[in-house]
Design a protein that fits this description.
Helix 2 packs parallel to helix 4 (about 65-70), helix 3 (about 45-60) packs across helix 9 and helix 4 crosses helix 7. The longest helix has about 35 residues, at about 460-490. The protein is an alpha+beta fold and about 700 residues long. Helix content is about 45%, strand content about 15%. About 35% of the residues are buried. Belongs to the relA/spoT family. It comes from Qipengyuania aurantiaca. Pfam families: ACT_4, HD_4, RelA_AH_RIS, RelA_SpoT, TGS. It is an enzyme of class 2 (transferase).
């Protein structure tokens, strides 16, 4: 912990005109007010505000900010009041302390109030004075450094998650990357301890094994630049562990597949040298197309400026390089804080002008609902924040949908999703979310993830959970088909088969459970003959190859209760519906493809395993395709649509396939109950004066 004189000396080093007496008073005041209070670590509580003040001196902030850091917890945690602060330290310090105190109080609000107030939190921190936010970020950073002293793991997780979701992104938004990286690292250690340990251990192994490779590459770059007449500083490091983990998650790759683990920084004297250095590096080593970004000519919205490029060092090693001036480097690491240094007379109002509209929304909003409805923050360009109705905040990639949100809340909630309300309105699940949306997920007890969701979800967690659920369901339904096939195979074995024979067969086939065998049969991974031999060795001797066909049994296999697209696939060529005579083509690892018996494409499956299928009693629902030729005159398309409506059928798709005046031909996909339903629709179409021809496609 910094002693009183050490803290004051730090400030006087960069601001000799600072009010030394005020700083001393603030130090003594916080020590006296916090008294015997202690932290979870056992240290005196006042050590925390002193350390936060130390962080502010690292940023070379003015004396009012240092005093605010020293006093920021006195109103919240002691008997001190804002009036006391104003009387002792002036109006400006009192206003700053009040701002930080408001932020802390918001964190303690009931859950049902936090949705709107979390939005306010972002804005209040930066409303009148950005220094409020700087102190709050310093406060959170020091709390994260001591988070491991908190005994309750659930509390550590909550604080870490809030840091990862709110404070680290906010630090990034104001350009304080040094704070952002450390917050992310400390939060990552708590939220994903196993991943943290694995990645940090692998990075340590790389350090132990590379034999100073990072330093060698940095030296090579420096020599190449020096030979071109450029005097620069070059430093190298492994990438941030959280950055590596996020890249692994986003790309669905292992640690070994992350190729750009090393990053190098080149510090130049001026902007012209930055571009010259980039040219030297690109002509010395091959650069990766599409990886060059010029943030000098086009800075990020938070003021970040640098050249980014990726090179191939040696034969295959990818390295990232950032090129910037010294001034850019300080601004890039500490963002807006770098502009608030003690000596700068003109504050960077332009740099925070993007806050003005947001502050007006806060001032104009009368209640939480209005604030949530109208506040669509532009603070985060590459991510959005959405809330549950109870106020829990979730960070999602830009473009995330209601289904992504459901899985972010909990995997079970995502799996049971049937609908969503966004800001109180029912919306399609594929609806992309905006910043500040309140999302209520509607769930069904018997609901399950749909394969179609993979067409619009964008988060790795949602995609992985959907795929896993679909695979499990598919395996179960394929095994159900296999179980029915197994019962038929058993009838062809020349003896009565019991449970013992099945257990012995599993051992011979090196399978653990009957379901493994049933799945292998349903997926055509094993032949009927192999199953018979496993059940009774020698039972297939003298059997002709054609006797291996299940179709010869004369029985049909019911697909009732199985899910199209999971347990079987309805062929796109003939679009069979319940009531059609059907057969199945069973292909290894592709499941069963169901065709109408008169489908022309069946001739191409002559070498596949054919199954005699039936819909089963009371099977309902399929998509039938019609080819309808209308007279090309006004109103005919509307009349066709009216016929569909009268017959209570939903149109899945409508495509114009031919225009041959005076006729227009359409292909229409309809959700019908069965063959009788489809036949009634065809009859109604053929009876219409608007229809020249109607038939199944």
């Amino acid at each position: 912990m910094l002693r009183q004189y050490e803290l004051v000396e730090r400030v006087l080093e960069y601001d000799p005109d600072a009010d030394e007496a005020m700083l001393n008073r603030a130090y003594v005041y916080t020590v006296q007010k916090h008294g015997t209070q202690t932290r979870a670590s056992g240290d005196p509580y006042f050590s925390h505000p002193v350390e936060v003040a130390g962080l502010m001196t690292d940023l070379k902030l003015d004396q009012e900010t240092i005093a605010t850091a020293l006093l920021h917890d006195t109103v919240e945690d002691t008997l001190a009041t804002i009036d006391d602060i104003e009387a002792n330290f002036g109006t400006e310090v009192a206003r700053l302390v009040d701002g930080v105190t408001k932020l802390s109080k918001i964190e303690q609000m009931p859950e049902n109030e936090r949705a709107a107030e979390n939005l306010r939190k972002f804005l209040l921190a930066m409303s009148e004075d950005i220094r409020v936010l700087l102190v709050k970020l310093g406060d959170r950073l020091h709390n994260m450094r001591t988070l491991h002293f908190i005994k309750k793991p659930e509390k550590r997780q909550r604080i870490a998650r809030e840091t990862m979701d709110i404070y680290a992104p906010l630090a990034e938004r104001v350009g304080m990357y040094e704070y952002m990286r450390e917050m992310q690292l400390l939060a990552f250690e708590q939220i994903e301890p196993e991943a943290y340990a694995t990645i940090t251990n692998r990075l340590q192994q790389i350090r132990d094994e590379d034999g100073g490779q990072v330093d060698a590459i940095a030296l090579d770059m420096k020599h190449a630049l020096a030979n071109a007449g450029l005097q620069v500083e070059v430093s190298g490091r492994e990438k941030h562990p959280y950055s590596i983990w996020r890249k692994m998650a986003e790309r669905h790759v292992s640690f070994e597949q992350v190729t750009d683990i090393m990053a190098f920084r080149v510090i130049c004297d001026d902007v012209a040298d930055c571009y010259r250095a980039m040219g030297v590096l690109h002509t010395t080593w091959q650069f990766l197309p599409g990886k060059f970004k010029d943030y000098i000519s086009t800075p990020k919205t938070n003021g970040y400026r640098s050249l980014h490029t990726s090179l191939i060092y040696g034969k295959s090693m990818r390295v990232e390089v950032q090129i910037r001036t010294r001034d850019m480097h300080r601004t890039n690491e500490f963002g807006l804080a770098a502009h608030w240094a003690y000596k700068q007379g003109n504050r960077p109002d332009g740099a925070v002008g993007w806050l003005r509209d947001l502050i007006e929304i806060v001032d104009a909003s009368h209640d939480a609902e209005e604030l949530l409805e109208h506040t669509r923050m532009a603070i985060y360009q590459d991510r959005i924040f959405a809330f549950t109705p109870k106020g829990a905040l979730f960070q999602l990639p830009k473009g995330a949908t209601a289904v992504d949100f459901a899985f972010a809340v909990h995997t079970d909630l995502g799996a049971q999703t049937v609908g969503a309300k966004i800001n109180g309105r029912h919306m399609p699940l594929r609806t992309q979310l905006n910043n500040g949306d309140v999302v209520e997920i509607l769930k069904g007890k018997d609901a399950e993830p749909q394969m179609s969701w993979l067409g619009f979800v964008i988060t790795g967690k949602a995609r992985a959970a959907i795929r896993r659920a679909v695979r499990l369901k598919e395996r179960g339904e394929v095994a159900e088909i296999g179980a029915k096939l197994y019962d038929e195979i058993v009838t062809r074995v020349p003896a009565k088969i019991g449970k013992k024979a099945l257990r012995d067969a599993l051992k011979r086939l090196e399978m653990d459970e009957p379901d493994d065998l049933f799945y292998a049969i349903g997926a055509a991974k094993i032949t009927d003959r192999a199953v018979m031999e496993a059940l009774m060795p020698g039972s297939t001797e003298g059997m002709a190859d054609e006797d291996d066909e299940w179709l010869r049994s004369g029985k049909s296999l019911s697909i009732r209760g199985l899910t199209p697209g999971v347990g079987y696939d309805l062929a796109e060529c003939c679009h069979p519906v319940p009531g059609d005579r059907i057969v199945g083509l069973r292909k290894p690892d592709k499941g069963v493809e169901v065709h109408a018996i008169d489908c022309h494409q069946l001739a191409t499956g002559i070498d596949d395993d054919w199954l005699d299928l039936s819909w089963g009693k009371r099977s309902r629902g399929a998509v039938g395709r019609l080819r309808v030729t209308l007279y090309d005159r006004p109103g005919t398309l509307a009349e066709m649509a009216g016929i569909f409506a009268q017959n209570a059928v939903n149109v899945k798709s409508l495509e114009q396939t031919q225009l041959d005046h005076p006729f227009t031909t359409y292909e229409v996909d309809l959700e019908v109950q069965d063959l009788a339903h489809l036949t009634r629709i065809l009859s109604a179409l053929r009876a219409s004066d608007s229809v020249a021809q109607a038939e199944r496609a």
